Amino acid sequence: MSNVVSYSAFKAEKGRIDPVVADIIDALNGLGGAAHRQDVANCVARRRSGRYGHPSKAESDEIFAAFETYVSITARRRPAPLLHTPLGPGSYRWALTETCRALLDDAHASPVAGSGR
Questions:
Q1: Is the pLDDT score of 111 beyond 60?
Q2: What are the residues whose beta carbons fall under 8 Å from the beta carbon of 58, sequence distance 6 or more?
Q3: How far, CA to CA in Å, does 109 sit from each of 5, 31, 57, 94, 99?
Q4: Residue 2 scores a pLDDT above 70
Q5: What is the full DSSP assignment across 1-48?
Q6: What is the pTM of this model?
Q7: Pairing of strands 83-84, 34-36
């Protein structure tokens, strides 16, 4: 269910977001906010398939490409990006930005419409 809540919050905030990027955000959030890209790909694949194991090369490549595309497109845009490489360009360590963490915190603090809370 956390995928639905976080994706809905980001979709509302950003207008539209690539579903693979939403999966990356959800995985990083579950991994504590920062992780090696292979750990993120493993987490996304596990959530998609429902079982443990490593993603295929094609699936890993899709995840890596989505992250790189997102970071390159949002580097000079406002509002602030949701993802970044905290150790600098070329790093395989990915992280949520403070803006993203704040959005996630707000999304989890607010009741979801129709949830009865």
A1: no
A2: none
A3: 11, 19, 37, 25, 15
A4: no
A5: -HHHHHHHHHHHHHS---HHHHHHHHHHHHTTSEEEHHHHHHHHHHHH
A6: 0.76
A7: unpaired
